[in-house]
Automatic annotation (TrEMBL):
Pfam families: Sigma70_r2, Sigma70_r4_2. Signal peptide: none annotated. Residues 111-163 form the RNA polymerase sigma factor 70 region 4 type domain. Residues 21-80 form the RNA polymerase sigma-70 region domain. This is Uncharacterized protein. It comes from Streptomyces graminofaciens. CDD domains: Sigma70_r4. It comes from the Bacteria. Keywords: DNA-binding, Sigma factor, Transcription, Transcription regulation. Belongs to the sigma-70 factor family. ECF subfamily.
């Protein structure tokens, strides 16, 4: 193995170690299942590794990889999206991706929130996850989703409105999870 290949592999490995938790969290929020999320991240990273020379030199490699992952998720579930986005059991919703900086991850009623999120149409779900969980700007979200900023605003607003309409969910958020 040449020195350039070793250096590229080390750079890729460092990138994966640094962004794995965030990619896995995003994949879980998109797919609603632990194993599907792990598969999605793994297959995305396989695609990215092949093109790492180009991806690694991008202005924001993590945003590039996130876009590849979102596209892969959309392609994978286009026909069976409704079935696959619905959680199969309450145990799937209890999956815990540890991220101490994620206040939603520490919420007592995380399962209820994830269940409500799983009921959103795919584009609304993507917009809500990227804007509010990943804290991307509208422009970054539009780039990741491959759509206009207006479409992001519309999908995010509709998604948030649907989440607010879920009985008990709005009260949980405004009361900080206290009953």
């Amino acid at each position: 193995m040449g020195e350039q290949t070793k250096a590229r592999d080390a750079e890729f490995q460092s990138f994966v170690i640094g962004c794995w938790p965030r990619l896995l969290r995003t994949a879980f929020l998109l797919s609603g299942e632990q194993h599907a999320a792990e598969d999605l991240v793994q297959s995305t990273l396989e695609q990215v590794y092949v093109a790492w020379r180009r991806v690694g030199s991008a202005d924001n490699p993590e945003a590039y990889v996130r876009r590849v992952m979102i596209n892969a998720h959309s392609r994978r579930h286009r026909r069976r999206l409704k079935e696959l986005l619905s959680p199969r059991s309450d145990s799937d919703l209890a999956h815990d991706l540890p991220d101490p900086g994620d206040p939603i991850g520490r919420a007592d009623n995380r399962g209820a929130l994830l269940k409500a999120l799983a009921q959103l149409p795919p584009r609304q779900r993507q917009a809500v996850v990227l804007r509010y969980w990943e804290d991307l700007t509208e422009t970054q979200t539009a780039e990741a989703m491959g759509c206009s900023v207006g479409a992001v605003k519309s999908n995010a607003a509709k998604g948030i409105a649907k989440l607010r309409a879920v009985p008990g969910l709005a009260e949980m958020v405004t009361n900080g999870g206290r009953k």
